[in-house]
């Protein structure tokens, strides 16, 4: 991942089997490395992760797009990154 990554290319993050706060840490690291407007697709199995990541979006200035359940029992969370200034 580099800051040169195009905002139109989604970044997939596999956070399955990780418990809080790891999915949030994974999202934070990714958001720091990609450009504003990048779509993060975070696959999680922790039932608290959608709430944790939605709160993280509000605190950091990112946009919560959706949470979608998958056939394998995981949930894919879609988050659009905000500006670089929104992630300290």
UniProtKB/TrEMBL annotation:
Boundaries of every UPF0033 domain copy: 12-80
Keywords (A to Z) from UniProt: Transferase
InterPro entries listed in its UniProt record: TusA-like (IPR001455), TusA-like_sf (IPR036868)
A GO molecular-function descriptor: transferase activity
Protein name as it appears in the record: Sulfurtransferase TusA family protein
Biological source species: Marinihelvus fidelis
Lineage: Bacteria, Pseudomonadati, Pseudomonadota, Gammaproteobacteria, Chromatiales
């Amino acid at each position: 991942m580099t800051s040169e990554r195009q905002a139109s290319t989604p970044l997939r993050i596999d956070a399955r089997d990780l418990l809080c706060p790891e999915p949030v840490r994974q999202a934070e690291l990714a958001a720091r490395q990609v450009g504003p407007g990048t779509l993060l697709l975070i696959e999680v199995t922790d039932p608290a992760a959608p709430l944790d990541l939605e709160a993280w979006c509000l605190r950091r200035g990112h946009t919560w797009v959706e949470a979608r359940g998958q056939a394998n029992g995981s949930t894919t969370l879609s988050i659009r990154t905000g500006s670089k200034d929104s992630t300290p």
